[in-house]
Specification:
By secondary structure, the chain is an alpha+beta fold. Helices cover about 30% and strands about 45% of the residues. It has a single domain, classed as Alpha-D-Glucose-1,6-Bisphosphate, Chain A, domain 4 (2-Layer Sandwich). The termini are far apart. This is Polyketide cyclase.
Length: about 150
């Protein structure tokens, strides 16, 4: 499966502060570079990430194509959490968010493994570049919000 991994140094922030920011559902649309719309009566301002929590949202790909995602939180610890797609526009999607203490701040890492419905040809043509663009933008947003 393809992997996208990005790490950003967030100066002056502890791992606990960065992880806490990520666990607050209200911050998801601030980090994500494309519009997202919660579904199923979820109040994004009252969404705290916890093990077993499931939620659905529309991800507006390229700002105009609605893709419905349903995700579940598989793991949460004091240094990471993992969300996994149950239903959505890909065959598989697993996203690990990690924090690690570094001198003067925290290293924040996104590691995503995925598989496109169309397999390797579609991944090479579209999905790999799209994923790279999304996670590059996520890390710019994390730095802007927490740096």
């Amino acid at each position: 499966m393809p992997v996208v991994e990005r790490t950003t140094f967030l100066p002056g922030r502890s791992p606990a502060q960065v992880l806490d920011f990520c666990l607050e559902g209200a911050n998801f649309p601030k980090i994500f570079p494309e519009r997202v719309t919660p579904l199923g009566g979820i109040d994004i301002n009252d969404l705290r990430i916890s093990v077993g929590r499931q939620f659905s949202f529309l991800h507006w790909m390229f700002g105009v194509i609605p893709a419905k995602w349903t995700v579940v939180i598989r793991e949460v610890s004091d240094r990471h959490f993992v969300d996994e797609m149950l239903k959505g526009p890909l065959r598989a999607f697993r996203h690990e968010h990690r924090v690690e203490a570094a001198e003067g701040g925290t290293l924040y890492t996104d590691r995503v493994t995925y598989r496109a419905i169309g397999g390797a040809p579609l991944e090479r043509l579209v999905v790999n570049a799209y994923m790279a663009r999304i996670f590059d933008a996520r890390h710019r947003n994390m730095l802007r919000l927490l740096g």
